[in-house]
Amino acid sequence: MKKTVLLCCIALVVVIVYSCKKNNNKSSLNVVALNLPASPDIYYSVNFGDPHYADSMNKVATLGRVLFYDGHLSLNNAISCGSCHKQSIGFCDNATFSTGYEGHLTKRNSPGINTLTFAGSLFWDGRENNVFNLSLRPITNHVEMGIDDPATLPDKLAALPYYGQLFKSAYGDNTITVEKITVAIGAFINSIASVKTRLDAYNQGDKSAISAQEIYGMNLFNTKYNCGTCHNGGGGYYGGGSFKDIGLDESYTDLGRGAITGNASDNGTFRIPNLRNVAITAPYMHDGRYKTLGDVLDHYSHGIANSQNLDPFLKDAKGNPLNMNISDDEKKAIIAFLNTLTDYTMITDPKFSNPFNLK
């Protein structure tokens, strides 16, 4: 009798384990199937390329979207690209430093990622300039995602139930390689384009899209205070990929670009950030030191330090740090203008959302 009961219990446990495993696989498949977009917009291919190429890249980007949000690309299966680049806040992180593998904190603030076609150099220090190589940087970083050898990823992903069909749809067969992974994530990131702000509508002829105060702020930004010289790269406030020392500190605690090039003249310089969605991507600067746009304007108004490589645009006629003395009304107008660069379509578009979030 006892033996029979024991055998029944063992059988029941086996059934439960098998059922849980089966349901988990089904859940994973359903997560992907229910939430994947039909065809994400690939900005560069739709606008500049062959439509057949765009259709093919859409399938690759669909795969890339899943990879972007999948924690299995980290060593502990807990950190994804989307952990530090959140759609609702312009694909940045709202923490000063992001939490990575095993709770380690990154050394720099996670910048927003959008419209990287116009970005030029990538990362705060420009250590990468190819968006298709971009994803391996955080994946193989021991602080961020913790994978020592990316060659282990194909087998790891192949064991998951949803990737075989996704890779086959994207590439024609279900073979998983590191190159295919990076190209797919790059294609998804390249599809995240900010082109539907109120400022875009204004520049396209809708003069009611922005207010008089916002126009005043735009004029202050671009003319009186000359901010547009650095920030209006590509004609759309995308940053342009140049590097500047903006006088954050007299002595450098982070060499920035200089740590990559080895040139002393690059010490303390960082990539000029994309201003698309800047109003929702706080905190600011490479180290997230400023919590608000008001804090940033205070820095330019009366806080520029006399650093070694301070940009000439931030010096007065005597070579001293510039004091812009921006008035409170001017600050309000400039901040109002910067709010016109928020792309609500991009930050809410289901095509860019986390496919593992069931609703």
Topology summary:
Layout: H1 2-35, H2 43-48, H3 51-69, H4 81-84, H5 136-139, H6 153-158, H7 163-171, H8 178-191, H9 198-203, H10 212-224, H11 228-231, E1 243-244, H12 257-261, E2 270-271, H13 293-302, H14 328-339, H15 344-348
Antiparallel strand pairs: 1-2
Helix pairs in contact: 3-7, 3-8, 10-14
Could you characterize the architecture of this molecule?
With 359 residues, this protein is mainly alpha-helical. 42% of the residues lie in helices and 1% in strands. The protein is built from 15 helices and two strands. The protein has a two-stranded antiparallel sheet. It starts with a helix and ends in an 11-residue tail after the last helix. The model is unreliable at 1-31 and 43-49 (pLDDT under 50).
Q: Could you estimate the helical fraction of the residues in percent?
A: 40-55%
How is the CATH topology of the largest domain named?
Answer: Cytochrome Bc1 Complex, Chain D, domain 2
Number of domains: 2
Can you identify the CATH superfamily of the largest domain? Cytochrome c-like domain
Number of E strands:
2
SS element count, helices: 15
| Strand neighbour order, sheet with most strands | 1-2
Mean pLDDT: 85
End-to-end C-alpha gap: 48 Å
State the CATH architecture of the largest domain: Orthogonal Bundle
Q: If you compute it from the alpha carbons, what radius of gyration comes out, rounded to the nearest whole angstrom?
A: 24 Å
Uncertain segments are: 1-31, 43-49
> Which CATH class of the largest domain applies here?
Mainly Alpha
